[in-house]
Amino acid sequence: MIYIITPVFNRMDLTKNYLIALRNQTNKNFKIIIVDDGSTDGTVDLIESCFPEVILLKKKGNLWWAEATNIGVKHALKEGASYIMTLNDDTIPFKDYIEKMYYWIEKEKNALLGAFAVDVHTNKAVFGGELLNWRSGKYENVLNGIALEERYGLKEVNVFPGRGLLIPTKVFQDIGFYDSKNFPQTVSDLDFTCRAYSAGYKIYCNYDAKIKIYTNESATISLRENKSLKKYFQHLFGIKGGGNLKWFIIFSLKNAPKKYLIFYMFRGILARVLGYPRDWIKDLVRK
Questions:
Q1: From CA 88, how far away is CA 164, in angstroms rounded?
Q2: How far apart are CA 263 and CA 256, in angstroms?
Q3: Residue pair 100/208 in contact by the 8 Å Cβ criterion
Q4: Cα–Cα 20 to 30 A to 275, which of 27, 80, 162, 236?
Q5: Is the pLDDT of residue 224 over 70?
Q6: Pairing mode, strands 112-119 and 125-127
Q7: CA–CA distances in Å: residue 277 to residues 231, 239, 274, 281
Q8: pLDDT band at 287 (very low <50, low <70, confident <90, very high)
Q9: CB 95 within 8 A of CB 25
C-alpha cells in the first residue's frame, strides 16, 4: 500500500482542497499521513472533524519540510508501507493520479516515480522532470524536448523534487532518510533523489500521473517577486531561499562527481549571487 506523507503548516484552505482531491481518487488503496507542524489556523480541527481517515501526527513547530517528512515516513514504515509518496498540500492531484501511479509501479517496481505538473489556473504543463547536467551545471527541462503528442508514459530523469514522488520503501532502507540536518527545507528532496540515483535506482517522471500546482505561490518564487535587498539576502541565506549558498555548497560536496565539482560549484555560486540582481535590473528596465 502507498502511504502519502504531507507536512502542513497554517494553510487550512489549501490543505482542505488537497484532501478533498485525494478523497475523490479513483483508486483508494492508499493512506494519508499529515504531519502538522504546529498550525494555529484551525488546520488540526479541520482534519479531525472532516477527514477522519487521515493519520494526523501533531507536532509543536520548527520541523520544516525535511524532518516533518522523515517523521511521517518512519510512521508509515512501522505500519508496513510498501511505497512512500511525498506530496505537498499546495497541489491538486487529478482523480486518476493514484491509479496511474499504481499502473506504472507494477512495471517499474524498484523505480522512483514523480508527478507531471500543470498550472492550477491554466492547466498548462509546467513540469515534466529535469536532467541535472553536472558538466554544464544546468538543469535541463525534459518537457522542452517532448512533443505534445508524446507526453505520456515514463520519461527518465536523474533528479526530482519531493512534490508528488513515489518511492519504494527499500530506497529508505538503502540510503537513509531526508538530510534534515543539512537541508531543513529546500534541497533535501533533490539531495535524496541524487543519492537514490547514485545507488542505482532509476527515476522517472510519470506523465500519466498529473497534479495541479500553484506555480506562483511557493516561498522561493515569492522572494523573486517585488525584489528588494532584504529578499536578496533571504534568497542567498534564508531557510526558504532557493539560492541558499550554504546548502548549495553542501549539496555539491555530497553529490557532484569529483571531476566536475569545482566548475559546478563555481558556476552555481556565481549564478546564485549574480542571478537575482540581474533579474532585478531587468524588472526595473521593463517598468
A1: 7
A2: 10
A3: yes
A4: 162
A5: no
A6: antiparallel
A7: 11, 20, 6, 6
A8: low
A9: yes
**Element containing residue 6 per DSSP (H, E):** strand 2-8
Dmax (CA) of the chain: 56
pLDDT digits (tens, 9 = 90+) for 181-209: 999 988 999 999 999 999 999 999 999 99
Cell of 22: 485525494
**C-alpha span between 85 and 73 (Å, rounded):** 9
Asked if residues 183 and 251 have their Cβ atoms less than 8 Å apart, the reply is yes
Average confidence score pLDDT of the chain:
93
Distance in angstroms (rounded) separating the CA atoms of residues 157 and 142: 8
> Do 204 and 216 contact (CB within 8 A), yes or no?
no
Question: Please, is 254 exposed, middle or buried when counting C-beta atoms within 10 Å of its C-beta (0-12, 13-18, 19+)?
Answer: middle
- Model confidence pLDDT, tens digit, residues 13-68: 999 999 999 999 999 999 999 999 999 999 999 999 999 999 999 998 889 999 99
Single pTM value for the model: 0.92
Measured CA to CA, the distance from residue 258 to residue 264 in angstroms comes to: 10
DSSP structural state of residue 232: H
80: burial class by Cβ within 10 Å (0-12, 13-18, 19+)? exposed
Report how far Cα 56 is from the mean position of its chain's Cα atoms.
20
Using alpha carbons only, how large is the chain's radius of gyration in Å? 19
The cell numbers describing 267, all together, are 558556476
DSSP-assigned letters across all residues of 15-82: HHHHHHHHHT-S---EEEEEEEES--SSHHHHHHHH-TTSEEEEE-S--HHHHHHHHHHHHHHHTT-S
